[in-house]
Amino acid sequence: MTKKFTFVATVPALHTVRSASGSFFFIGVANKDSLSVTEQIALLKSRGMLFRQENQASHFLSNISYYRLKGYWWDMQTDNRSHTFNRNSYFEDVLDRYTFDRHLRLILFDAIERIEIGLRTKMIYHLSQAYGGLWYLDANIAHDKSIHTKLVSDLKEEFARSQEIFAKDHRARNAHQEPDAWLILEVASLGTLSKIYKNIGHQLPEKSKICKEMGLNLHSELSSWLEAITVVRNIIAHHSRLWNRNMVRTPMQITNASGIWLTHTLLPVQIKKPYLVISALVYLCNHVSPHHQIKQKLLDLFAANPGIPIYKMGFLNNWKNENFWA
User: Fold this and answer.
1) Which DSSP symbol is given to 148?
2) Which of 6, 102, 244, 285 is buried deepest, with most CB atoms within 10 A?
3) pLDDT value for 82
4) Cβ(214)–Cβ(288) below 8 Å
5) Which residues in the chain come in under a pLDDT of 50?
6) Cβ–Cβ contacts within 10 Å for residue 184, how many?
């Protein structure tokens, strides 16, 4: 006896929409109804959110989306399923967190700029001095040749898109000539620079020289730090939340720093939250830009916002006892 099987395909609900031209097409039904700003405020109030100046809330929700702010009130909830809030959870405190985070990202973007430019300069200089202006094309100085091929392709794509005057001039004058390292790496992203550095042959003295000038002793340490910093850079570039975030990449912990570094054993929360990577940013700035004001700006930001729970970023009670932060 032959068994018969019935297959049922599960598809999202669809409804018909008529376009301006008169034709029909199908779109999926939204998971939830869109809420007006007034309804968003009412929903927050029904869940226990308080407002000191409710008449101003609509202005903020009209200019900062509900779901962008949600990351800043998530930990204020007693229940993440019903989304009810703790007692004394104020909308204005959420805005303070949002504003604090915006200022924090601006300070850290300044730090990342200094580090990126310092790294780019050292890579161009030391490797060009040793292997010539087209060293980036030489697979013999790469650790992994297949990765090298992909990175060269990425570099060329970035250079082809660049609207910098020197890039456009090179393409116009020397269309069939490979650009020198000081041209093509100047438009490379931090992510690409980080990958190129990581893939430089480990035995090359120039790799070690770059690392030491950045303040670290091992190239594996610098590669790890650059990967973590690239993630932070991308978060900032997309104006995303950094405060209270779990970092998907964390810097390698070092024990033999050439400069002043953290001495206390880090707790897991200090590693996975922004504390460690922020410390790494300050440390690298100490070497590539010794007269920077990054640390002082951070300390001033913290002091100006005593109501912001920075321990949720990994800055626990003893963080000020570190010589590094003193």
Assistant:
1) H
2) 285
3) 84
4) yes
5) 1, 3-11
6) 24
pLDDT score for 175 = 84
Picking from 227, 203, 201, 225, the residue whose alpha carbon sits closest to that of residue 214 is: 225
What is the radius of gyration, based on Cα positions, of the chain?
26
What residues does 84 pair with on adjacent strands?
79
Query: Which residue in the block uniquely carries the two structure tokens 């018909």?
Result: 16
Tokens 């990967």 label which residue? 227
Residues contacting 132, CB < 8 A, separation 6+? none
> What local confidence, expressed as pLDDT, does residue 30 receive?
63
How many alpha carbons lie under 13 Å from residue 151 in its C-beta half-sphere? 26
Q: What is the pLDDT of residue 75?
A: 93
User: In this structure, are strands 24-28 and 14-18 parallel, antiparallel, or unpaired?
Assistant: antiparallel
Nearest to 294 by CA among 283, 304, 303, 305: 283
* pLDDT score of 20: 59
- Do the beta carbons of residue 261 and residue 310 sit within 8 Å? no
Q: DSSP 3-state assignment of 210?
A: helix
Output the six-digit token pair for 204.
Answer: 């090359």
Of 292, 236, 237, the C-alpha closest to 118 is 292
CB 236 within 8 A of CB 245: no
For 41, 80, 115, 251, the CA distances from 30, given in Å and listed in that order, are: 21, 22, 44, 40
Judged by phi (left if over 0) then psi (alpha if -120 to 50, else beta), residue 80 lies in alpha
pLDDT digits (tens, 9 = 90+) for 188-207: 999 999 999 999 999 999 99
Q: Any long-range contacts for 136-145 (C-beta under 8 Å, 24+ apart)?
A: 136/181, 136/184, 136/185, 136/196, 137/178, 141/200, 141/201, 141/204, 142/199, 142/200, 142/201, 143/198, 143/199, 143/200, 143/201, 143/202, 144/199
